[in-house]
Amino acid sequence: MRPSMRPGGGPLTVSVRRGLLLESTHRVHAVVADAAGRIAGSWGDAGRSTVLRSAAKPFQALPLVADGAADHFGLSTEEIALCCGSHNSEEAHLAVARSTLAKAGVAESLLVCGPHPPLLRERERELAAAGTPRTSIMSNCSGKHAGMLALAAFHSWPLEGYEDPAHPVQLRMRRELARWARCDPRAIPSAVDGCGVPTLAIPLTDLAAAMARLVAAAGEGGAPGRVVGAMVSHPFMVAGTDRLCTRLIEAEGGRVIAKTGAEGVYAAADRERGLGVAVKVEDGAWRAAPPALLAVLTRAGILSQDAAGALAEHVEPPLANTLGDVVGRLAVDP
Question: What are phi and psi of 17, to 5 degrees?
C-alpha cells in the first residue's frame, strides 16, 4: 500500500494559481474503501456526513430494474444509463429521456425537475441562439425523473407528487440506498435536491463502501449488473461531451465508473479491484471536484497512466480569462 493511501491523512488541497500567484484553495475530504467497509486510504474527514445529490443516481436507478419496470416497459440500456446520469441537455440526451417517458406512457408535463441552463456551455449558447425555451426535459436530472415516473407507473403508484418524501417512489429509493450503505433508512437525514426530489446524506466512508458493493454485485449480474453495465456501455448518457464522468469511463474502458454530484461530490469505483471512492470538496466548489477525484484515483493506484494522459485537462484544469487566454491552472497540492 502506498504511503499516500494510509488512513487518516489530512485533507487534500486544490490550489488555484493565476500565473505564479496563489489565488484560492479548496479543501477536499476523500476516502477509498472496499465492500466490507475497510478503509484503504483517506484524506481529511472520512466520516464526514455528505449530501449525495446526483452521486446517488446509480442507486436510485436500481429499483427501476430490480422491481421489473425496465423489462415491463422494454427500456434499453441507453435509457437505463440516462437514469443514472446528469446530462448536458444535448439532443441525444433529450431524445432518450423522452423515449423513456413514452415507453412508460407518462406525459412529459409531469416532470417536476425545473429547467436550468445546460451544463455544457456550448449547448447553452446553441439553445440561446436558436431561441429555444428551457423546459423540464432539459434538466440534467430529467433521466432520473423519467425513471422515477416509470417506476411509479409500473407499480400503479400516483404519478403526481412523486417528488414528495412520503411518496412510494421516494421511500423505495431511500430503502435501496440504505441497503447498499448498510444503514437504517429511517436514520438517514434528507433535504430537497436541486431538482425537487429528496436528497440523502451519509458518511463518505459509507458512500465509498456502497460503490464498492455495487460493482462487486454487478459482477454477478442482476439489477446491479444491468445498471453498471448500462453506464459502461453508454458513458455519453452518464454526462456528455467534455464531462469527466463520460471521459473517465471511456478512458479506462469501463474498468472505472464515476458519478458526480452537485456541491463538489464525486463517487467512483474500480470494478477490477472492488474499491469504492467518495470525494467531497468542503466548500462545494464544483471546479475543484474533477482534479480532486483524479488525484485520489491516482494515489489509490486506480487511474492508469494512459487515462491520466487522456484526461490531462481535468487533472489540471486551465483557468481562462474572457478572451479565452489560459492565465492559470487548478492543481492538487502534493
Answer: -115, 125
Using alpha carbons, select from 30, 147, 154, 163 the residue that is nearest to residue 85: 147
Longest dimension (CA), the chain: 60
Q: Could you please report the per-residue DSSP string of 245-300?
A: HHHHHHHTTTSEEEEEETTTEEEEEETTTTEEEEEEETT--GGGHHHHHHHHHHHT
Residue 85: all three cell numbers together: 446520469
Stated as kind and residue range, the H or E segment containing 40 is strand 39-43
**Residue type for position 27:** R
Any idea of the CA torsion for 282, 14, 10, 252, to the nearest 10 degrees?
A: 100
pTM of the model: 0.96
The grid coordinates listed for 63 are: 429499483
Spatial neighbors of 204 by CB under 8 A, at least 6 apart, are: 29, 30, 31, 45, 46, 47, 48, 50, 278, 279, 280
52, 34, 53, 57: which is closest to 227 by C-alpha?
A: 57
All three cell numbers of 188, joined, read 438517514
Contact 75, 103 (CB under 8 A): yes
DSSP letters spanning 117-153: --SSHHHHHHHHHHTPPP-GGGSTTHHHHHHHHHHHH
Cα–Cα nearest to 181, from 259, 276, 289, 249: 276
- C-alpha cell of 322? 474572457
* Helix (H), strand (E) counts: the chain: 14, 11
pLDDT of 253-263, one tens digit each? 999 999 999 99
Q: Residue written as cell 438517514?
A: 188
Closest Cα to residue 94, out of 126, 64, 71?
A: 126
pLDDT digits (tens, 9 = 90+) for 210-252: 999 999 999 999 999 999 999 999 999 999 999 999 999 999 9
